[in-house]
Each structure stands twice: as structure tokens, then as C-alpha cells.
Design a protein that fits this description.
The structure holds 2 protein chains of 2 kinds.
Chain A lengths: L3 E4 L2 E4 L5 E7 L7 E6 L6 E5 L3 E2 L7 E6 L2 E6 L9 E6 L6 E2 L3 E5 L1
Parallel strand pairs in A: 2-11
Antiparallel strand pairs in A: 1-3, 3-8, 4-5, 4-9, 5-6, 7-8, 9-10, 9-11
Chain B lengths: L2 E5 L2 E4 L4 E8 L8 E6 L5 E7 L6 E3 L7 E6 L4 E6 L8 E6 L8 E6 L1
Parallel strand pairs in B: 2-10
Antiparallel strand pairs in B: 1-3, 3-8, 4-5, 4-9, 5-6, 7-8, 9-10
Classes of the chains: A mainly beta, B mainly beta.
């Protein structure tokens, strides 16, 4: 199975900060990558699919980039409602695999 | 718009069985492979099972192989997960996915 390595596993940031989360695949997955946001007690919510395509209704401060093995999720100006855990996921293979998550906490 | 709604979860004793269901709408279900994914309490997301669009190919995560069975009914746009010989470490929220998780999930608790 394709391994997804996400970093950092946690970070502390302030409102207004620019935040970057990275995800690396163990083999090339073209653009077959999604980013999720998950808040406590809720299901994961898709933010970005196909590495850089924003889902409908997702604020423009979120963006995704990358191709092949290296991917990035950027929050340009962190807002209070963005404190959550973020996951990457590849769907290039029949076996879906996920990064370990990045918990974004308030500094 | 793609909609996936899981149901069938509940509380069951060790060794028991449950059948999960996923109702799909908003896309051509019969032409898509489908999957089950789970998330244990305080844990990350884990792939569980895969089924091809016509149902002939199935793959399972090693810890559920031989206990869980994935199936589908393309005439009803439904995906299923039959879970037998349940163990406490199967306790999780279970999600269905085409290639993305889009539903609320259904919670399974296995008591010891």
C-alpha cells in the first residue's frame, strides 16, 4: 500500500498566521490527493481534491498544491474556526491511505 | 451532488455481528468502485475494504480479512459491510467512500 507521511503531526499558531502542512507519498500518485478537515465529534470534511481543486463552499484562504509525491495544504490567514485536525489521503490506488493527521492548535 | 449516508451501527458484544449499509446518490454508483474506511476513538483514518464497480473484486485490510464481507447492490445504489466475529478493536466510526469520505459515518461499539 502507498504510505502517506504527513508533517508536522501538530502545530501551534495564532489567528492570522500562515500555516503550511505537507504530505509525502511513498510513490507517485499524480494529482490523486485530497485534504480533509476534522473537528472533534464530526466526520472529516473534504476541503480539496485532485491536489488543488477546492470543494464548493471552502473559504479561499485554503489552497492545495503538488504533484507526484509531494503535496502542500496552505491556510493563508488562520481563522478561529480553522483550529482542527487535517488529513491528507491518496486515491491513486484501490487501497485508500491517509496521512497521520496534523492537529492545528491555538498558540 | 454526491451523497453517501451510512447506517446500521450500534453496540454489540464481542463475537457479535452487524451489517452496515451505505445509501449513495448524486452519481453513477454502478460505475464506481467503493470502499469502507474506519476511525477508532482518538485515532486516524484506516481503510477497511474495497469492492470493484461490478462487485467481482474485493480486498480487505488484514485485521478484518475473513471476518468482514463487503458487497453491493447496484440496482439499489447500496453498499454493505457484513461484520462478523466483532472484537473491541473494531470499535470505530465507519465511513463509506467512492474515493472520498462524504458521509456522517455510523458508529460501531464492541463491548468486551
Amino acid at each position: 500500500a502507498i504510505q502517506m507521511t504527513q508533517s508536522p503531526s501538530s502545530l501551534s499558531a495564532s489567528v492570522g498566521d500562515r500555516v503550511t502542512i505537507t504530505c509525502r507519498a511513498s510513490q507517485g500518485i499524480a494529482s490523486s490527493l485530497a485534504w480533509y478537515q476534522q473537528k472533534p465529534g464530526q466526520a472529516p470534511k473534504v476541503l480539496i481534491s485532485d491536489a488543488s481543486t477546492m470543494e464548493s463552499g471552502v473559504p479561499s484562504r485554503f489552497s492545495g498544491s503538488g504533484y507526484g509525491t509531494d503535496f502542500t495544504l496552505t491556510i493563508s490567514s488562520l481563522q478561529p474556526e480553522d483550529f482542527a485536525t487535517y488529513y491528507c489521503q491518496q486515491f491513486d490506488d484501490n487501497v485508500l491511505t491517509f496521512g497521520g493527521g496534523t492537529k492545528v492548535a491555538i498558540k | 451532488q454526491v451523497q453517501l449516508v451510512e447506517s446500521g451501527g450500534g453496540v454489540v458484544q464481542r463475537g457479535g455481528s452487524l451489517r452496515l449499509s451505505c445509501a449513495a446518490s448524486g452519481f453513477a454508483f454502478s460505475t464506481y468502485a467503493m470502499q469502507w474506511v474506519r476511525q477508532g476513538p482518538g485515532k486516524g483514518l484506516q481503510w477497511v475494504a474495497f469492492i470493484s464497480f461490478e462487485g467481482s473484486n474485493k480486498f480487505y485490510e488484514q485485521s478484518v480479512e475473513g471476518r468482514f464481507t463487503i458487497s453491493r447492490d447496484n440496482s439499489r445504489n447500496r453498499l454493505y459491510l457484513q461484520m462478523n466475529s466483532l472484537r473491541p478493536d473494531d470499535t470505530a466510526v465507519y465511513y463509506c467512500a467512492d474515493h472520498l469520505i462524504r458521509g456522517p459515518g455510523t458508529a460501531v461499539t464492541v463491548s468486551s
